[in-house]
């Protein structure tokens, strides 16, 4: 089996690639940086430029599944220019992939799985969202995800199963939001945001990678939430991070206006509340390794602390 991955060198893509290799699955990947092109027995890179529609069609050779993760980070200040980058980076990659597939043999593809985001769900402290929710958040992020998913749906014309994984807060110490949340706590200046009551639907990066592979192996189609079974409030998450890091919390919650002044419109993602269900993927037979946030954080920072202790003792 061979999988083509866009965004393979990013946080989630690297984890999926490692999982593929652990299961004997070869990986082709697309990159916009020629410096990142490698050619190994089970790992081959190919150049593309989605902004110009350029793609090396050799990337599809022997591929039976595609994982799309490409898209610019939303964790940068949302200037008018960068907003365009966030949207175009998602739409243009899909258009270029679609055009490339039309030029090859799409009949060889048995599964197409694309990243999406839970940011499409409306901001709410009370709702518990499942995949059949039709309302869209009235924010820039809601607008982006809606356009993103509409473009993903164009792949249905090929006839193979198309799945969308709506990703929540990814738990990893190697990137994403968690290290940024942990940093002030490590320096004794951590606290919850706003009321702290906003829901955060999280997923351990190992489970997220497993969801993508599960979707491929079972040829799933439709929308699936890429979140763990037990969402937590922001206050709970901050407390649990502090607990596993063995750091005290004594500062008042960070007011919304302060973060708005610091980060601009992008601060919205710190205060948005989306309590999201993982029931649908579980009903397909997926079993989470990390069911609660305490265990997830311990697996990340416990292992990290153990490595640091080992390095100190034996260096």
TrEMBL record:
It comes from the Bacteria. InterPro entries: DUF1731 (IPR013549), Epimerase_deHydtase (IPR001509), NAD(P)-bd_dom_sf (IPR036291), SDR39U1 (IPR010099). Residues 254-300 form the DUF1731 domain. Pfam families: DUF1731, Epimerase. Residues 3-224 form the NAD-dependent epimerase/dehydratase domain. NCBIfam families: yfcH. Belongs to the NAD(P)-dependent epimerase/dehydratase family. SDR39U1 subfamily. This is TIGR01777 family protein.
């Amino acid at each position: 089996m061979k999988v083509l991955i866009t965004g393979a060198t990013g946080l989630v893509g690297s984890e999926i690639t490692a999982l593929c290799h652990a299961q004997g699955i070869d990986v082709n990947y697309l990159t916009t940086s020629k410096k990142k092109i490698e050619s190994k027995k089970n790992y081959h890179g190919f150049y593309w430029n989605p902004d110009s529609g350029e793609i090396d069609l050799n990337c599809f050779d022997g591929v039976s599944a595609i994982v799309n993760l490409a898209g610019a980070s939303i964790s940068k200040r949302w200037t008018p220019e960068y907003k365009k980058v966030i949207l175009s980076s998602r739409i243009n990659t899909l258009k270029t992939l679609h055009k490339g597939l039309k030029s090859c043999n799409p009949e060889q593809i048995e599964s197409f799985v694309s990243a999406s985001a839970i940011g499409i769900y409306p901001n709410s402290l009370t709702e518990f969202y499942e995949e059949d929710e039709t309302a869209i958040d009235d924010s820039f992020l809601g607008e982006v995800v809606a356009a993103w998913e509409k473009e993903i749906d164009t792949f249905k014309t090929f006839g193979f199963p198309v799945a969308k994984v709506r990703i929540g807060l990814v738990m990893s110490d190697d990137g994403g939001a968690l290290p940024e949340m942990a940093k002030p706590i490590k320096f004794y200046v951590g606290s919850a945001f706003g009321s702290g009551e906003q829901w955060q639907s999280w997923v351990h990066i190992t489970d997220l990678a497993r969801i993508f592979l599960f979707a491929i192996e079972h040829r799933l189609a439709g929308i699936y939430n890429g979140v763990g079974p037990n969402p937590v409030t922001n206050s709970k998450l901050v407390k649990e991070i502090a607990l596993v890091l063995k750091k005290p919390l004594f500062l008042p919650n960070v007011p919304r206006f302060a973060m708005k002044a610091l980060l601009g419109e992008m601060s919205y993602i710190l205060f948005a509340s989306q309590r999201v269900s993982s029931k649908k993927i579980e009903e397909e037979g997926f079993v989470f390794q990390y069911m609660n946030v305490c265990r997830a954080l311990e697996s990340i920072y416990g292992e990290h602390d153990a490595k640091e202790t080992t390095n100190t003792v034996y260096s």
